Amino acid sequence: MSAPLRAEAIVLRWARAYTRGLPDEAAERRLGELASDCHEQRHWGREVGASPVAVATSMVARTLAGLPADLLWRSSQLATARDRSPVTEGRPMGRWIKDNWWIALAGLVGVFLVVFGIGLPLEDRTLGSWIGGGVHVALGLTMLAGIGVRRTRRKRGDVMIAVGTMAMMPWLWTIVLPVLGLLVLVPALIDLSDASAAGGDTEAGAVDDRTRPTPPAPSGPDRLLPAIVGLLTAAVVAAAVIAQPTPAVVLVAAPLSLLVAHLLMRRLNASATTRVGATLVATNFVYGPVLMLAGLIGQDSLDLGGTWGTVVNYLVGVIGVAGLGLLVAGFIASRRQARPA
Amino acid sequence: MTYGKISSHNARMPRRKPGSLLPLEVDVLEAGLSLRRQHVHEFHGFELAKQIAAGGTARKLTAHGTLYKALGRLEDRGLLSSTWEDPDIAVEEGRPRRRLYEVTGAGERALADWRQQQRKPASGTPGLEGAP
Questions:
Q1: Where would you tag: which of A75, A79, A141, A300 has the fewest CB atoms within 10 A of its CB?
Q2: pLDDT tens for residues A252-305?
Q3: What is chain A's mean pLDDT, rounded?
């Protein structure tokens, strides 16, 4: 391939990138004009006897010099498509951040996992470190690949990102790492739920979010179910890797109680009061058997003892009573509303 | 797209007075009218870029993004009109289809008004603002 043809390919590749997601008419017009422009410049170069390298350099330079204008043009086209001028209101950037912040964070986490995984065996040259490092690198690459895959296969990409976050969960003592993992995991699984509700696996990036009709949102709590199951999975993974009874029980019990509360709320179709009450009761409901089971199998590590033990026991009791009270209050309120005037 | 929207897209670009022209827009209209004098009534983007480059000393071909953004802006304001050429002609000549532009009457008047403003004393408001 000659230098001008290679330059033309670069010009058109860039054009395809910045016209992605724009209305078809605008995108096709710009691509058509650039294809014609490049062809004419190549043809003109041959006519005047310009060197192929000079023609190619000129084409690439024209593209580079026009980059800011291209991006501004894209912005104006998107604004036109939405029939409003969002730049003055700060909307497009704000909306983009709102929709995509977790993907950017997933990218950072993915890069961190890869770097961390490479560094782990260098620090400690044991077999365990090599395996652990390899797992971190693999999961980090899975996350990064998921970000790319998500553009054409949204659900698959979301799952890959969510799976990758699991590598962050066992690092509880750092606090920051599992929190970062959860900040990616939950939005990824909510997005997965949205993508499933929209009924497709190819929508992300195929059409710009701002020009795509809003898919019907999954009704109510169902949208959160994958995220809660993901939280529970993350807790189980963390507990399994840590392999210590106390944090394991605490870790798993919390999302388990959340799941129970969530499933309960789905059936209740209840008011906010009832929902909060159900959550508190479910928390007690799950922690009770868990604590009892821990006692039965001789795990007394949950017995905090002393003042803290007393505070925790009272707190659990107060939460349970408050939850029951809210449940009853919500039930009475719903009966009153249902009663004919 | 309205003119107000176009000018509001770049926060750093000062709002333009109605009827004012940017330097590149003047160049486009002048080049278009120059081509018309050569009996070329309709012109495509690269032809225009060549004509603009030929209009001054050591001027380079206008950047793609800048040129086509300006053409779209002028068309939105009714100073240019454009249409795709017949695809059969492009196929026959073995090249991509051209988007053909033409300077409208409004475009001629806008350029004439701008020239008139330029002839006024320097104390007046300049017709040129900002940068492309």
A1: A300
A2: 777 777 787 777 777 666 666 777 777 777 776 666 666 666 666 555 545 555
A3: 78
Please tell me the distance from the alpha carbon of residue A104 to that of residue A187, in angstroms, as a whole number.
12
B111 in Cβ contact with B84 (< 8 Å): no
**Encoded tokens for A119:** 């560094």
Q: What is the pLDDT of residues A20-49, one digit of tens each?
A: 888 888 999 999 999 999 999 999 999 999
* Contacts with B68 from chain A: Cβ below 8 Å: 30, 33-34, 73
CB contact under 8 A, A36 and B95: yes
Placement of tokens 């023609």 in the chain:
A55
* Phi, psi for A61 (deg, rounded to 5): -65, -40
pLDDT band at residue A120 under the 50/70/90 scheme: confident
ipTM value: 0.80
Dihedral sign, Cα of residue B111, residue B114, residue B120, residue B122: negative
A29 closest CB neighbour out of B11, B67, B99: B99
3-class state of residue A341 by DSSP: coil
Q: How many CB atoms lie within 10 A of CB A339?
A: 7
Q: What is the DSSP string of chain B?
A: --HHHHHHS-TTSPPPPTT-B-HHHHHHHHHHHHHHHTT--SB-HHHHHHHHHHTSTTPPPPPHHHHHHHHHHHHHTTSEEEEEPPHHHHHHHTSPPPEEEEE-HHHHHHHHHHHHHHHS-TTSPPSB-S--
CA distance B111 to A238: 71
Q: Do A80 and B44 touch (CB under 8 A)?
A: no
Residues 6+ apart with CB under 8 A from B105: none
- Both tokens of residue A115? 């770097």
How far CA B60 is from CA of A50, B12, B50, in Å, comes to: 14, 25, 9
